[in-house]
What we know:
CATH superfamily of the largest domain: NAD(P)-binding Rossmann-like Domain
Shape: elongated
Radius of gyration: 41 Å
CATH class of the largest domain: Alpha Beta
CATH architecture of the largest domain: 3-Layer(aba) Sandwich
CATH topology of the largest domain: Rossmann fold
Helix content: 40-55%
Amino acid sequence: MGIRGRGRQATERVGNHLPERVYVLAQSTEGLSLVLLDVGIVFGAWSIAGAAANSALNRTIGIAPFLGYVAVATVLQLVVHRLAGMYGPVWRYASVEEATRVVSGVLGGALLATLGLGALRLATGTYFPLLTAPPLAALLSLLACGGVRFQARLFALSRISAAESDERLRAVIVGSEREAAPLANELRSTDTGDLDVVGFVLKDPSLHGRSLRGIPVLGTIDSLEEVCREHRIERILITTSPNERDSPQILERALATDAQVKVLPASSDRVKGPLVNSLRDIDVTDLLGRQSAVVDGAGIDEYLRGATVLVTGAGGSIGSEIARQVQSFGPAKLIVLDRDETLLYELMSGSLAGTGAEPVLADICDAVFIQQLFRQHRPDVVFHAAAQKHVPILEHFPTEAVRVNVLGTLTVAQTAADSGCRRFVHVSTDKAADPCSVMGATKRAAEQVVFEIGRRHDLPFVAVRFGNVLASRGSVVPTFLRQILDGGPVTVTSAEMTRYFMTIPEAVSLVLQAGSMAVDDGRVYLLDMGDPVPILSLARQMIRLAGLRPDEDIEIRITGIRPGERLHERLHDDAEVVEPAGHPSISALDPKATWEWNDLAKQLEGLRSAVRQRDELQVRGRLEDMLRAGGVDCSLREAENRPGWTT
């Protein structure tokens, strides 16, 4: 290789290592650089302080003596700076210890300089303002020396913060300032890992444009979607409790964005500790926007503790929750009856495992077995939840609906009365009000049967009427979930359809509460269902809840009303009088017309005869006649001609 080639390689090596050498040189001379900076800072501070003091005192001093004083002060102060260790630390990692060094070094240096200047003044006889100049010089030196050193630390923190902010999710806190501000403070003061709160979206419009805890208020609830788009929000934290009145509106707007949504539950449902620990994903129950009813636990405990309790239909959604809640009150014996062995097995191996509950596999229409069961166990309390409940199916099979819902209820209620059962609670439905379907008509007939048997035997036999419960097997919610998981379409029978909803635990707790209120006579109790929920809106929100977009990712298809369905459910009708029942979430329904027992028995025998013959048309007619004779307007025969009526 020639001399030129070797020279080029040498130049390249030098060029490649030049930045590294410059960096090493800069690191090695960092202390020297600070010394030179301090020389200029301290000399300037004492010069400014001395000149200002002389000017204020109208004193003059020659340039040479003045510079001599300033030079002596600078040297003495820099000596103390060195002794205090102000040239050793790596300042981009500075902390309280380094700040202490700066303060002690500057103040100690100023004190030593003052003493030195005093000695120089005595020795030379020249004037220098020793009372006023040193404090000002110390202050200026402290600000400048500290600023020079800690700017490196501040710059490092700024870079770290910017890097972390780029990695963290951009979040907004939505709700009222009362809950939003404490949550924001926690998120800033604790290690939340993945969240960067960029602002608030608050209910109060007067706060728009202001700030809380140094965080800006970006808008109001109505502008939530716009704020999320403008600020590229990736997570929404809702502090409004899901059971507050305006929660559905906030959730709907939040779910319409592309951000992940977290909610802060009601205070009673929060875990102990910081608010951040209580943040959770939203679920379908949050979409109801209703407050859970408060029940009198002592009143329920009074009639369940130590009692023998029978629950029919215990494998179903409502029946299993009744069994679970009853068990928590310590009955002497809990008997759970269902005709579906799989559901019964799941109950006994699930929530009732190890509780000592006694499973019974039986059909409530088997009168002989039911009578044997009551003779053997003598239940004090019966919760009757067994029923056929799917409206479209029962429109095709009215005989089975009447057999189970009416005659089965008659068997259980009559046997309970004959065996001296103290309390009987029948689980009914809002479809029993102004019934227009076979299912609703059979449940209304069952209410009348329970009511009249209790009246005849002077026993507190009651029915509890309520609407749909979320996640039950008869609810639309599991259907929507299955359709969403299958990729759609989500089917809604009508864009105008509404339904009443409540959660299973709340409904059951109120059923138990109604049982405690049944003391002297039988009644039909109506649970407060809140406001009806538009089914189409529920479908859209559930799709958004799954992280998908309605009509884009998942199709919503309107299929038309099915046989027996109606657009809007009613909770009571003109054949009933609504009265308060002494509980804010429960009302009493008294029938305007009551039966003579013999007349009711004849109607029931006619139904039984039609069921034996399995004459579907006759079953419909007799069911309709029975309700009309009891004062309830009902029309079922025309159902055969409704659109979609096929067998």
